[in-house]
Prior knowledge:
Layout (H helix, E strand, L loop, with lengths): L44 H10 L19 E4 L4 H11 L8 E7 L11 E7 L12 H23 L8 H33 L6
Antiparallel strand pairs: 1-3, 2-3
Helix pairs in contact: 1-3, 2-3, 3-4
Amino acid sequence: MKQLRLDVDYQVVTMEGWQPAAAPGFGWPLGERAWVSPSPNAPNLSMARCYPGTVMLEGTTLSEGRGTTRPLELFGAPDLEPRRLLGEMQALAPEWMQGCRLRECWFEPTFHKHAGKLCAGMQIHVDEPGYRHAAFRPWRLLALAFPPTWMVNGVRSALLGVGYFFGEWYLDLAVLWGFLLIAPLLGFWVFSGMERNIRRREGVGEY
């Protein structure tokens, strides 16, 4: 309300008994409450943990796993090289990959993006003892996957002269260079601000 300067009468109701930092549920009462899917693509707790990051794939050509039994826990595409992508991510910012485990996988969506095609990609595992809730930041993880994906596809487009994104190879190359120059600074500014805000609000029940 302060940020938007809204002059309204409101009251923040603090959640009682909510412990987002307490294992093993980290905010969800494991063994006490059954998970009821609020959406066909929200089948389990793992999806809910990954969703703030994987939802960013909606506007891209990468599949976020819709049409599979693990929607929004997977990401990939028919021409993706997951092992290479994983190496690029580790080289760029290994600290942004903490708190979860990434596993190479292959999947074939039955509908939505790349329906009927075998996709190579990764599954984000947040359902094992190695999961660290305080370290896992899904939006940072998926943001980290974007630059290598753009670099691989953009360079391929320029070398082959096939306009992968915008129809002309030189337009792709121009966008690629602009992305390489601007995205790291913009990404650092945006995600640092998001993390500060979320840490400040943690435990209040705001989203």
